[in-house]
Amino acid sequence: MPPSAVDHAFNLALQHHQAGRLQHAEPLYRQILSQDPTHANTLNMLGVLSAQTGRLEAAADLLCEAIALQPLDPLSYNNLGSVLKTMGQLEGAADAYRRAIELNPNYSEAHGNLGGVLRDQGQPDAAIAACRKALALKPDSPAALINLANGLTDQGHFDEAIAAFRRAVVLQPNNPEAYSNLGSVLQKKGLLDEAIASCRQAISLWPNLPEAHNNLGLALKESGRLAEAIAACRQAIALRPAFAEAHGNLGIALKEAGQLDEAIVSFRQAIALKPAFREACGNLGNALKDQGRLEEATAAYRHAIALHPDFTDAHSNLLLNLNYHPAYDARAIADELARWNRQHAEPLHRFIQPHLNDPDPNRRLRIGYVSADFHTHASALFLMPLLQHHDAQQVEVFCYAEVLGPDAITGRFQQLVPQWRSTVGLSDAQVAQQIRADRIDILVDLKLHTAHNRLLVFAHKPAPVQATWLGYPGSTGLTTIDYRLSDPHLDPPGLDESVYSERTLRLPDTFWCYDPLDGRDLPVSPLPALANGFITFGCLNNFSKVNDAVLRLWSSILQAVPSSRLLLLAPEGSHRAQALQLLQEGAGGRVAPQRIEFVTLRPRRQYLELYHRIDLALDTFPCNGHTTSFDSFWMGVPVLTLPGPTAMGRAGLSQLINLNLPELIAQSPAHYARIAAALADDLPRLAELRAALRGRMQQSPLMDAPRFARNIEAAYRQMWQKHGLTRNPADPVLVA
Known about the structure:
By secondary structure, the chain is of the alpha/beta class. Helix content is 56%, strand content 7%.
């Protein structure tokens, strides 16, 4: 070809290429190269086209040829970097982008692309800096904005990320990946309706984009639309069968829907595809725990932590699991708590600053409550009565709420507490900064190691006095939390308190104060046995607390009371058959399967109505029921308990002493079985207990909210006065 013909063919090929007519562009590029193998621009563009059609190795070879012919061309280096990034060769990609920038320091696209690679290399600060440089050179670059937003998301700067994504989609309204990523960060921020809309917009632009379906599934799951979430995750997997994250998110949705066997399969598939997938390993532990497979759950959590020692959530889940596990005593749990503190909390102690709060021992105190449970959750049954009866002359209440999906109960909390702070999307340091700005005197953790806790906020010590209460009567392990609230029955004076990192402060009567909230109008039914002609035992506790020893003891009770039935709450799955087998084996095969009935999780009112079918509730051990026992008492059903070796295992004892029903507290497994059999044989006594139990409860400290609030406030005052005695008089004080 003469030069003019080459130029004409190249320009024509470029027009086809830019218009997306790749099938017309490629033959022209190859025709040029057949005549002039050293045409560098053609080599460069054919390399780009090859990458666009998935021929990555060929693309890299062509771009390297172009660079050899034009070693000072930054465009070829930039294109080579993009190909190498797609091939997973991140170091080579970063080198190519840096070479492009050396040749043209004002090359905005290369700076932005370098930012994307640095993010993938785990260098978030450098990635964000590179993207900011790209935007300084070219403020309206959608690619740089998207890379910046991705980096900001990784750093937890969700508001800035959302702003960058929104600007990107304005500049490039047909970019499905930008809408998909925007949906992901909106979901993290708790803006679920907007997240769903953004993901659906991405799908409308590119129906076969797996990431958009996956992100949609996550947002739908957080919105409680589980069937839709499952369908969205399955669609992501159909589009990309090896999409480990979609398998993991499908497992989460299936677990939430109570399909535990299927969830476990999904988590295992995610791990098979991505062996170091820490979230999938941790979530596998959660699903196994829900099936009562505590040893397997423990192994899954420990594997997740071994893979990623900084995986705080998995370590918290392990600790909660150990509280249910019969093989772990208080000392073993304390040792693991100390490891959690050393690994996750102590590195943050360097950020602790002096507190400027006025030490006046008698002034009105600012109390901050930190929780993710300011919504329809068991904790609301105990927190609502306290907040309703706090003395505004004594305390000013602030709530720091990690609530992704607010509901009607959230609204009720917000009406009670004007000083409401959402912590969704904020880092631990940002939450701690807000608490300092609010000048909180006593900061109270309400979660311990349960899901969505913000214990690392407490590691920053944003308040001069910090305490823990409500989540469960245990310990956080944090040396920056000063007190744990308990009562004289959960923690009888004289027991070894060295298993707690906090100082134990006992409320006079009870750790809990209960309000059934929307269950107030449900009546107590007559004793079911009077109509049925047989006794129905029941346990609606978390199935994680139902271990082999519990099942064998219940089996002996069923054998001793031949006509009796047992009603158990358990999600569907293979663990039901395993439980049934143990119940039958424990009785030598003399417990017919039809005497055992399993029921699933259900909305609160329907769950409470299950107590209309139960004559006597059987508590679990070594970890007792907490909220379920209060619900049982409210519905007129007495609970037979066996105290365990930890505070969590003395919950039933504390409740029954406050109800003045010590005869329902067993001293041994054999005693437990004898009490159950005796009550089953004494229907008049059971009927009497049922008829009087709600009134007994209403007259007890367990439902005396004003008294409980005064006791809590007295505890806070004691903490504050103790703080005033121990603080350094030379410390500065900020007086309002």
